[in-house]
Design a protein that fits this description.
20 strands; single chain; 8-stranded mixed sheet; globular; alpha/beta; 4-stranded antiparallel sheet
Length: 436
């Protein structure tokens, strides 16, 4: 297997040298953070008045965690570490759950981010000979612009198609011989269901790779997409508070996502007790930026759940690998006292061949009890129109779900294409229970 590197020296740096580099950059980041209104107060309360108070990486534990609520309180500029004249771009969250969060970037920050994304793309074996179609939204959402500039830096031919308009996406893929796409998993599944309807066939496409991200998805969903399109699917992870895409990415071996530890310090903590967890222990990912000048963030709690793999990757990169995101601490559902994540449900239903590309989870009340309904589209080519076959499939899904999540769900089967489709991040969960 060919292994390509964007920056081999950094990507294969031995662990001791990598930790020494992290310490140097952490001291610089603390010095930068002390220039912000927010961290100036917070760090001084922790006894950190200058970068000289950081003597080794264990001193990181003296720094309090930063949360999403902290960033909201900093809106619009209490987290800004440089003069506004040094800022060349900012991104904000949607603000749908309250005050938005904002991240400022200097020109140097964008250069660094773009380089990290180029590193990710090269790790998958893509080169300047590839045609890259970016189906993520552009604008304040970081998914579109982040991969766009990284792909250009690699030298790929970039098609900035943005999200939506499936027929046009397919036409572009055919006309310009797209070989790599960046897309949400739910939209990639949707495209697969529309190929024939819009007059195309898989033979019209030249796809080799897909970069999937922006929403959690299961290994079974990856397999379903890989088998349908006959391509390699790579898992991508990022969050807007850490720039966006380019934080962690799979290499050609697809055995976990390398987190670029010359740009971020990665921690995994127990989200309840907040103690650090060892390798192979699932917990909440916490990140510290090491290279960002505009908005340095220290020990930012992502709410994303994953674990760090043990051992080395065959690609020889020394940057540790995280698992796919299994859920979020704040999207956990509590159904009649049982904790579960939407990803657990997806893991089960996408393993069943008769299940199609789309599903939704509904929560409501029946009297005083919670009621969980899982609506799934069936895969038309495997359905012969036999009612007994439908009843059997419904019971099969129900039994598999009950075994996995303990809760006894209602299962509804729907025709292909009948459930709502999202062209951006999929809205998988509808919770209509009255909030107390």
């Amino acid at each position: 297997m060919d292994i390509l590197y964007w920056n081999k020296d950094l990507e294969t740096l031995d662990r001791d040298s990598l930790k020494a580099l992290q310490l140097k950059l952490l001291k610089e980041t603390v010095a930068s953070a002390l220039k912000t209104k927010f961290y100036k107060n917070r760090l001084r309360k922790a006894g950190i008045n200058s970068e000289e108070d950081i003597n080794d990486l264990n001193d990181l534990k003296r720094i309090p965690f930063t949360t999403k609520d902290d960033l909201r309180e900093c809106y619009p500029d209490s987290i800004l570490a440089v003069g506004l004249s040094e800022i060349v771009r900012l991104h904000t969250s949607s603000g749908t759950t309250g005050i938005p969060t904002v991240i400022y970037h200097t020109r140097e920050d964008l250069e660094s981010w773009t380089d990290l994304v180029a590193r990710c793309i090269t790790a998958t074996g893509a080169t300047k000979n590839d045609v890259f179609q970016n189906m993520m939204s552009y604008g304040l959402f970081t998914g579109g612009l982040g991969l766009h500039y990284g792909a250009e830096r690699v030298g790929m031919t970039v098609i900035p198609s943005g999200a939506g308009n499936t027929k046009r996406q397919l036409q572009l893929m055919k006309d310009f011989k797209t070989t790599v796409v960046h897309v949400t998993p739910s939209y990639m599944l949707h495209i697969g269901t529309k190929i024939e309807e819009y007059g195309f066939s898989l033979k019209d496409l030249f796809l080799k790779k897909a970069y999937l991200g922006a929403e959690p998805y299961s290994e079974n969903t990856r397999k379903k997409i890989e088998e349908f399109f006959n391509i390699d699917v790579y898992n991508s992870y990022g969050l807007s508070e850490m720039n966006g895409p380019g934080v962690s990415f799979e290499c050609v071996y697809k055995c976990g996502m390398h987190t670029w530890e010359d740009a971020y310090i990665l921690e995994v903590i127990d989200p309840k007790g907040m103690e650090p967890l060892g390798e192979e222990k699932e917990g909440e990912l916490v990140f510290t930026t090491l290279k960002r000048k505009g908005t340095p963030l220290l020990r930012y709690r992502s709410r994303d759940l994953a674990f760090i793999y043990k051992g080395e990757c065959p690609c020889k990169r020394t940057h540790r690998r995280i698992s796919r995101i299994t859920g979020r601490t704040d999207d956990m559902l509590i159904v009649n006292g049982v904790n579960l994540y939407p990803s657990q449900i997806e893991e089960v239903i996408m393993r069943i061949p008769e299940v199609g590309a789309n599903y939704q989870i509904f929560l409501d009340k029946e009297g005083t009890l919670d009621r969980l309904t899982v609506k799934v589209e069936i895969y038309s080519k495997l359905f012969q129109g036999d009612v007994r076959q439908l009843d059997y499939l419904k019971e099969k899904i129900k039994d598999n779900l009950r075994s996995a999540i303990i809760v006894n769900p209602i299962v509804e089967l729907h025709e292909p294409g009948s459930l709502p489709v999202s062209e951006g991040k999929a809205k998988r969960v509808v919770d209509s229970r009255v909030k107390l």
